[in-house]
Structures are given as C-alpha cells and as structure tokens.
Amino acid sequence: MDLDERIERRQRRDDGPRLLRDLESLSPVAHVEDPSDRGPVFERLLDHLDPVFDGNLPPNAYLHGPFGCGKSAVVTALFSRLGRLPTETRSVIHTSTRAAEPTSPGFVYVDMRTATSEFAFYRNVLNALVEEPIPRHGISTDEVRARLHRRLGTSRTGVVVAVDHVTGPGSVDTDELVDLFAGLPSNVSWLGIGRAPPAETQLVEYTASTIAVDRYRRQPLVDVLMQRSSLGLAPQALEHTLARRIAEWADGNAHDALAVLFIAATHADAANRTRLTEHDVTEATTEMPSPSISLGRVLALPPNERLVLRRLAELRPEERVSVGRTTEAITADPAVDLSPGTVKRFLYELAEDGVVERVRVEGSDGRGRPPSRIEFPFPPTVFRRLYDLRQ
C-alpha cells in the first residue's frame, strides 16, 4: 500500500470502528498492480514479449489456465506497466549491452466478454491508442477500422493486443477472432487468454507459443487474501487461520476464495463486528455454488439483463419456484421497466447461457412443462453489492 492510500484510509475514518474500508478491494473481479505468487508467469510472459525491448513485435501466443488462477490479473498488470514505456520516437528501457535506442510497440487489453461485436472490438483497440475518446454511437464499424489502419499505418512498431476470455463459456470462437485480426494491419500481434488447454482449442493453430498458468498454491492464496484484507478491511479483521481455511476450501481458485472473503466480510459488517469469525466464513462457503461461474462474466452482461439479475438476486426462494412466478416477482418491482414477456425471455436465455440455472421442481403432477426453480451459479451477495457499487 502506498502513502496516498494510507492517508486516504485515515481520511475516511468516522467516530467508530468500521470493518469495511473499501469493499471494491475485496472484489473477485478487481485486480491489483502486483498479483501475488505470479513471478514465474510474469517471467514467461516477458520472455515471450522480449522482442518489444528491441522495438519489434512478438509472435502470436496463447496463455491458458483454469478458472481463478490469475490469468487476467497477470496480463492486465503487465500490460499496464508495459503501456507506460515510451513509444515511437522515444527510447525504451534497455540493457547496457544494447547500444541502439529502439522504440516500443503499444499495448492494448481487450476483454471479449464486453467487446461482443466487431464494432466494439475495433473501438476498444483504437480507444487505447488515441487520446480523444472514440464515441460509442454515430460512427460506423468501417470508419473505426479505417481510423485504426491510419493510426497503425504511421507506427513503426505496431501494437500487441491481449484478447481475454477467448475460450470457455460465452467466449468468441476461433474463426471470429481470426477474422477480427485479419481486419487489422500486419503490424499487430495478439496474446489470446483462455481456460482451454492447447489440445482443446484451434486457437493454437494461429500462435507460435503457449504459456501455462497453474492454480494458486495454498500459501500464496493465503497471501492474496491477506493482501486484499489489508486493502479493504479494518486492521486485523482477518486472522491467518481463517485465511488458510478459505484458501483450503477454494483449492487454488482465487476468484472463489475472494468471493468467500467478500461474503464473510459483508456478514460480519451487517452484524456490526470488526473482525471476521468462523461463522462468517461458514455462511460464506455455504452460499457459494459449486461449481461457480465468473462474476466478471455476469457483470459484463447488457444493462437490462443485469437489472433482471439484480432483482432476481433479491427474491426469496418461494418467489423463484418457477419461471412464471419469478417473472411476476421481478416485473412487480417498479424499478424494472420491462414487460413480462421480455423478462421471461431473458430468464430463458440466461439459463441457456449458463448464467442462471433452471432446476426441475420435484413433485410436479406431470402435466405440461414441469416447473423450474431458478438458482444461481454465482454468489448473489457479491453480485448485488458489486452491481450497486457500479450504479
């Protein structure tokens, strides 16, 4: 934690002790500048990107690993740092053995969960390369692509684009991704990031190398939890014994471990405690579905679908016993300005995409379509709080 953060924490103090200092710091979809225990991954990525320090582009690559192993955290941290290197006419960091002063490519990170169209993809890339923001409306895809060609056409070094979430549920398929990059100039290379092992994706046919990321080991995951606790909670709010228990439960998945910490802290704060207890952690692990899906995927949904999920996450179990009953409960909320037909369609589409689950209700009489209870493959407490923080 730097000095500015320490001063800011003290400025936020009130007259009494508080458990929650910065809830966003506990978020499983937030990333820190220096992810814990990812040094070897950083080194492998830097080995791959080493040509940029001579002003050249690296070949395409694919970085892969299981859910919650910190792939996005590593790449966003590294690309953020590399993006600060001087570009074009100014020299980059280089060793004393290099007499020349090469220039550095640009670095762009694109989350394919939010760049769900050709326009959004090209706009995100261009937006990262120019100072003036590119509008979301009133400009065509062809114009954005033409501007990209003009921008990169004047670059001697090009750009490296990290494309995250390119394999797995709801991701872009290989052909679509290849077509997107075919629409860019030749001085672009890309780093694909996904969950699927190389043998299970055609993406590697277009890459020169693959980089594996393993699950967190237990002690480093404890360190992640303690680091986030120091940023988001009161001092000594999380004991090492509880952090070890969460890390053991999460089995190397940092996303789920942080979700448990988030829920436990929320429970403890609601009870006006300044320290987490065993009961808070037990309640949190009970709420977590197994398996879970990424909250980043849920929060990347279009606004109306997120609104429906936000109201859904407030409903009591008896209000979710069928799609029809759930639709009635959601549309009864005056904040939901959507028709029952639209809400019902969203629920079915979200179920098809795996964002919610339809569980057949036992004991139905067998006439017509059996009723389906709506359940969550993500922790609703975390979603509710993160949704509200972003409004």
UniProtKB/TrEMBL annotation:
Keywords: ATP-binding, DNA replication, Nucleotide-binding. Residues 223-285 form the Cdc6 AAA+ ATPase-type lid domain. The keyword Oxidoreductase does not apply. InterPro entries: AAA_16, Cdc6_lid, P-loop_NTPase, WH-like_DNA-bd_sf, WH_DNA-bd_sf. GO terms for biological process: DNA replication. Signal peptide: none annotated. It holds the Pfam family Cdc6_lid. One of its GO terms (molecular function) is ATP binding. Residues 38-187 form the Orc1-like AAA ATPase domain. This is ATP-binding protein. It comes from Halomarina oriensis.
